[in-house]
TrEMBL record:
Stated name of the protein: RagB/SusD family nutrient uptake outer membrane protein
UniProt family annotation: Belongs to the SusD family.
Basic and acidic residues composition bias: residue spans: 284-301
Subcellular location field: Cell outer membrane
Domain named RagB/SusD: residues: 355-496
Keyword Signal belongs to the record: yes
Length: 507
């Protein structure tokens, strides 16, 4: 997908602004371009849609580790910071307050900016007579999906949040109170269902558009919302349709799913593409998982030989090395599970490392993936997740008998010989699915949401073993939600109208 590259260049050319103008990136596209004159052709409609994606690649969202990953990955039982790091400490250590919340405010603002951009696109493209039906449908479909994806994260992280689905003045949007989370999710279900019933998104894309959401991306997001609602029937239906009718399939080898040279393989349902050497479009998320030479190897005497061995392969341990598996994840991951080497890297080129790293997200190639200029796609949704969601929904509806096939399909490539589940009670299989999701989807942005959805975040964190912080001693029941940032409350006091405690942080 060349979305970000085309959008940045295309919009700047239209506006007559150079790529070096950083101030433009702080503005909202709809605030600069009059929609009545901008949405007048298919090309302009596509550029407008592409503008929505700009929010995803910002540093506070997916552009670096200190964005959405901080709030979906840290503070669970898979990953932690390798050292004391102020930016992640409140979330990692559960010392969150209204005024101490990592980068939550930046994420809040970026998501609402994306929602506002999507509302503008939907309103103005729907009302334009100059856009072809095909482009109009896909443009609206993409905007509906991205808006839903934004509200998905807002509702999971904050619960009740302001909701609006039409283009309104920024001042009006900035004075809205909070909408109940179940009402928001019902609206998302309607929007995502509309994508399918009106055929707004295609099933596949050509090479130049890989990374845009398909109808299958809409369906997996819809299935996830149904799981939050404990609507097992509809969750099962969406998952079955993806497995039975989509072009996606499980790869025979787990490690191949994360091949940086094939980021849109058959298992990937949606990934966010980045482009190396495109201004403002590269990302450094990979740096968060890469070892640093100042930390490695464990034996300082091996540092020179390791550096030479790396250089011979055009490689460096040049990342931040900030994010590593927690101790209990390392100790409990089954040693005979073929997924373990892809999730836990304890040595490289024969040298023992100081820390263990998440191997499936490392990239040591400093030529094609230099520090701070990574072009790797960021994985969001894949088919193995669907199989495990289907196993969960089926087990909750009817017990284990028909659910085994779905969890065992994922385990089949994880063990040699295969070790299928059988003979479990419903409660035992429920626990097995929860554990299987941890091993299969580690570091992919689902774990903390899963633990909150299952109602077991507190007990899980309290029983996990960390090396840097002690979140188990600090975590409280209200930590299943983030506090609305104090600066946002000052700007919009209505955010406290329905909940003066601010999700329990204002007591």
């Amino acid at each position: 997908m060349k979305i970000f590259k085309f959008n940045i260049i295309g919009i700047f050319v239209i506006l007559g602004i150079t790529l070096g103008c950083e101030s433009y990136l702080e503005e909202e596209v709809r605030g600069i371009i009059d929609p009545s004159t901008f949405y007048q052709s298919d090309e302009e409609a596509v550029l407008a849609v592409n503008g929505i994606y700009l929010n995803l690649r910002q540093n506070g969202f997916y552009g670096n580790w200190q964005g959405i990953h901080t709030f979906t990955q840290l503070g669970a039982d898979v990953l932690e910071s390798s050292r004391q790091f102020g930016g992640n400490e409140p979330m990692q250590n559960y010392t969150l307050t209204q005024s101490n919340y990592s980068n939550a405010r930046q994420l809040w603002q970026l998501i609402y900016r994306m929602i506002g951009d999507a509302n503008s696109v939907i309103t103005n493209i729907e009302n334009s007579p100059n856009i072809s039906a095909a482009v109009k449908d896909q443009s609206i479909g993409e905007a509906l999906y991205l808006r839903s994806y934004g509200y998905y994260h807002l509702s999971n992280l904050w619960g009740d949040v302001p909701y609006y689905d039409e283009e309104i003045p920024i001042a009006d949007a900035a004075s809205l109170g909070r909408t109940p989370v179940n009402e928001i999710r019902s609206n998302l279900i309607s929007d995502l269902t509309r994508i399918e019933t009106e055929n707004l998104l295609p099933e596949t894309y050509g090479e130049s558009d890989l990374g845009r959401p398909t109808v299958w991306a809409a369906k997996i997001l819809l299935a996830k919302i149904y799981l939050w609602q404990e609507d097992w029937v509809n969750a099962r239906e969406e998952c079955l349709e993806i497995i039975n009718n989509s072009p996606h399939q499980l790869l025979p080898n787990y490690g191949d799913v994360f091949d940086v040279n094939n980021p849109f393989n058959d298992e990937i349902i949606w990934a966010i593409d980045f482009q190396k050497d495109v201004p403002g479009n590269a990302q450094d998320r990979t740096d968060g998982f890469n070892p640093r030479l100042r930390d490695e190897p464990r034996n300082p005497a091996d540092r020179g030989p390791l550096s030479e061995a790396l250089a011979a392969r055009n490689e460096e341990f040049n990342g931040y090395g900030l994010t590593v598996p927690i101790l209990s994840f390392i100790n409990e991951f089954p040693v005979n599970d073929l997924r373990r080497p892809h999730n836990i890297l304890g040595e490289y080129l024969g040298y023992e490392l100081t820390f263990q790293y998440m191997a499936k997200f490392t990239n040591f190639d400093f030529v094609n993936s230099p520090r701070g200029n990574h072009g790797e796609a960021t994985l969001v949704f894949r088919l193995a997740d669907v199989y495990l969601m289907l196993a969960e929904a089926e087990n909750e509806l009817n017990g284990p008998d028909n659910a085994y096939q779905y969890i065992n399909a994922v385990r089949e490539r994880a063990y040699d010989p295969v070790q299928p589940y059988n003979g479990l009670s419903q409660a035992e299989l429920r626990s097995a699915i929860q554990t299987e999701r941890k091993w299969e989807l580690a570091g992919e942005g689902h774990r903390r949401y899963d633990l909150i959805r299952w109602g077991i975040l507190l007990e899980t964190v309290k029983n996990a073993e960390f090396r840097t912080y002690d979140p188990g001693s600090n975590i409280q029941p209200h930590h299943i939600r983030l506090p609305i940032p104090e600066e946002e409350i000052v700007l919009n006091p209505a955010l406290l109208d329905s909940d003066p405690t601010n999700n329990g942080y204002g007591n």
